[in-house]
Design goal:
It is a single chain. The protein has 50 residues and is mainly α. Helix content is 92%, strand content 0%. It has 1 helix and no strands. The radius of gyration is 22 Å and the shape is rod-shaped.
Amino acid sequence: MRKNLSIALALLALIGIAPMLGACHTTAGAGEDLSAGGHAITNSAEKHTP
C-alpha cells in the first residue's frame, strides 16, 4: 500500500514539474530574442550617429 502511494505521489510530482521544464526553454528563447533586438537597435544607433 505504501509503495503504491509513493509511486502515485512521484508521478503527480513529475506531472506538475513538466510544464515548468518546458517554460525554461521558452524563457531562454525570449531572452535571446530581446537581446538580438537590443543589439540591432545599438548597431542602428551607431550607424546613424554623426
